[in-house]
């Protein structure tokens, strides 16, 4: 199926290795930060912050596994293999399967919508997210299921993806009117970050979509793309959620505002 003998050059190896290492550092220390700083927001916003920490924590674990899998597959130093087939892209998909629903909960939680609206949103978004990821996996892992080409899996996965973006955008925009100008600005940033980062995943998928085996350049582009997108979608996003939670905390409680902010 794959061309197993294709090698990564030293610099290609280093690029991917450095990116995965950056992934570990970002995920791990964002997790520490969010856990340690959770008391700097009011209790009602703490859940959103802790969900962010869970997302980056789960991702830190998977980045360790990916780093390990990558070294095992491509390190020639230990005299061993250079074998694309044993680099396990499944870690990314398991990671997304767990973290994307959590990210969606995070967004919905920080908006402090009504309970009813929250659950109706999640009931639509979470199954769509699961479907998007499950349909993408056979394409990325180049599984041979009924001879369906990777591009077709990608296309199928794009349907729930567009649905998620549509629902989120409509709801995020609707919720804007109820927020203060400061929070509105942050939610607009959140929306922009969401579109800019979530859009990178399908692009990175396309980089390595060919079905005729392993191509080093394409592999590197995909891994770099996914890692950058992950850092922005999980760490930066989590920190933005934290700052929205702080802003809302200060608006809700003058005492909190006085101890946490100078102005
Ligand atoms: C796939 C397959 C190709 C088509 C599309 C995809 C979308 C993936 C996305 C993943 C988002 C992951 C996030 C993780 C953060 O924790 C599966 C690559 C549309 C949007 C946000």
TrEMBL record:
Membrane topology term reads:
Multi-pass membrane protein
Span-the-membrane segments of this chain are 15-35, 47-64, 96-114, 121-139, 145-169, 190-209, 224-245
GO molecular-function terms, A-Z:
monoatomic ion channel activity; photoreceptor activity
Q: Listed GO cellular component terms? A: membrane
Q: Which UniProt keywords apply?
A: Chromophore, Membrane, Photoreceptor protein, Receptor, Retinal protein, Sensory transduction, Transmembrane, Transmembrane helix
Q: Which InterPro entries match?
A: Arc/bac/fun_rhodopsins (IPR001425), Rhodopsin_retinal_BS (IPR018229)
Enumerate the subcellular locations listed in this protein's record, separating them with semicolons. Answer: Membrane
Identify the PROSITE patterns for this entry. BACTERIAL_OPSIN_1
Instruction: Reply yes or no: does the keyword Membrane apply.
Output: yes
| A biological process term (GO) from this entry | phototransduction
Database matches in PANTHER family: BACTERIORHODOPSIN _OPSIN, NOPA (EUROFUNG), PTHR28286
Q: Its family?
A: Belongs to the archaeal/bacterial/fungal opsin family.
Q: What is this protein called?
A: Putative actinorhodopsin
Q: Give the originating organism.
A: actinobacterium MWH-Uga1
Name the lineage.
Bacteria, Bacillati, Actinomycetota, Actinomycetes
């Amino acid at each position: 199926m794959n061309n197993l003998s294709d090698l990564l050059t030293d610099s290609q190896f280093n690029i991917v290795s450095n990116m995965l290492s950056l992934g570990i550092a970002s995920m791990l220390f964002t997790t520490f930060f969010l856990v340690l700083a959770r008391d700097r927001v009011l209790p009602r916003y703490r859940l959103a912050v802790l969900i962010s920490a869970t997302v980056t924590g789960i991702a830190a674990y998977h980045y360790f596994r990916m780093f390990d899998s990558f070294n095992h597959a491509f390190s020639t130093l230990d005299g061993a293999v250079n074998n694309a087939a044993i680099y396990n892209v499944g870690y990314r998909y398991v990671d997304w399967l767990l973290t994307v629903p959590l990210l969606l909960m995070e967004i919905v939680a920080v908006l402090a919508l009504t309970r009813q609206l929250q659950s109706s949103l999640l009931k639509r978004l979470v199954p769509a997210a699961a479907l998007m990821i499950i349909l993408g996996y056979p394409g990325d892992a180049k599984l041979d299921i009924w001879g369906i080409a990777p591009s077709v899996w990608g296309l199928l996965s794009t349907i729930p993806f567009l649905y998620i973006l549509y629902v989120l955008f409509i709801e995020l925009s609707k919720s804007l009117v109820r927020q203060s100008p400061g929070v509105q600005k942050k939610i607009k940033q959140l929306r922009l970050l969401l579109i800019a980062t979530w859009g990178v995943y399908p692009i990175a998928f396309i980089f390595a979509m060919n079905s005729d085996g392993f191509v080093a350049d394409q592999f590197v582009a995909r891994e770099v793309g996914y890692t950058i997108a992950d850092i922005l979608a999980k760490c930066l996003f989590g920190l933005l959620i934290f700052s929205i939670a702080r802003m809302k905390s200060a608006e809700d409680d003058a005492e909190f505002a006085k101890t946490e902010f100078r102005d």
